[in-house]
Amino acid sequence: MKKLFKISVLILFCLQTTLTASAGAVFPDVYDSEPISLELQYLVDENVVQGYPDGYFRPLNLINRAEFTKMIVEGLIEEEIDPEQYKNCFNDIGTEWFAKYVCYSKEKGWIQGYAGNLFKPADKITKSEAVKIIVEVLDWEFPLGYYSHFVDIELGIWYEKYLHAAQEKNLFDKLDYFISPHELISRKQMTTMLYRAMKYEEGELVSVEMVEHTGNDKLTYQEVLATGIEPAYPSYMDMPNHPQTYYPYGCYAFATKNLMEWQYDKYLSINEVAATIGWDGTFIWSPEEFDVFAVNYYVDVISTYDGSAEFFFKKLAVGDPMILYIPYDLNGVNIGHNVVAYSFDENGVWVSDSLSGGYQHQIGYDEVFFEDDHYTISLTQIRQLKEGATGDRKSQEDI
Length: 399
Hints:
- The protein is an alpha+beta fold.
- The protein folds into two domains: 35-201, no CATH class; 216-397, Cysteine proteinases (Cathepsin B, Chain A, Alpha-Beta Complex), CATH 3.90.70.10.
- The protein is built from twelve helices and nine strands.
- The chain has helices at residues 35-45, 65-76, 99-108, 127-138, 160-168, 187-201, 221-225, 251-264, 270-277, 287-296, 309-317, 365-368, and strands at residues 299-305, 322-326, 329-330, 333-334, 337-345, 348-353, 359-363, 378-384, 392-397.
- A seven-stranded mixed β-sheet has the order 7-6-5-2-8-1-9.
- It is globular, with a radius of gyration of 22 Å.
């Protein structure tokens, strides 16, 4: 393969640490139980990745276009880049520290700018933009007539062939049917893609996580647990749990607030959300309110109905907390409740709950799979999109 990825992440902006990991992890804010722990260990051993000066990795931090371009150029090519030759290639690129990497990449055809000859170096990078650069630098061929597992890759759009090429090389897990091409990627996601790309270049096709069972072949939650599956995050991990004070029936909104704060360090004002989407503060949002939320907050809201036990556990095993619907009895009537599920063990699921002043606690599996041992009722993922992208509410059933 080409020169090993020698990626220094010292230049990345320091954001708030969101995890406190167990002792022995390759970085103190990455748990041993996280899948990327092994990937990071490999990249560290290969002198590919370093942490911040304080020793932290900050896996949930998002990456901008300038930082990512530097990482790829330094990691994948062998020649020195002359800063006197490579500068002033976009109207917003002069002689900054990242200019030579951006201008070299532009000359090679790996990157393109925006209208007005702009590169927008501070913009966070999306999944499709990152994949395009990886595929171009590694000169991967595009598969012909390729069937995509993902249904939200628009036919004929510029990123289609790149995502297909990356999917063919197993850069993505296949747990649901939506890949969200405009999703802003984190350092955690970048770690996985770089690791898998490196392994492919070394002749190894890394296996990916998949939901394999369909129809009547679903496993019960007991059968999935019996496989020895483990969560990415421990029960003691800190997860935001803001109380739904003054909103006694606003559990879904507060579950969304808690999940977005953990995942993207984005603090939602519930009053502002209510005013923006026209929500009256009670119960789950209507389809119209979901649509307005997705568009105004630049997110893909992915709802999975009748999610299989395999899907539920595998999502938590790769470190994707979700909003989970559970029963809630009020005067003998189930009005439902939404919490953020983030971990599990043999006794039940650990959740962040906005009731009782907000707290983290464990619920039994009879609350998660309360109608059938094979299925949950409803699960929600929220994926932050690049500003300007059109957010959408997507749904999948029986996965």
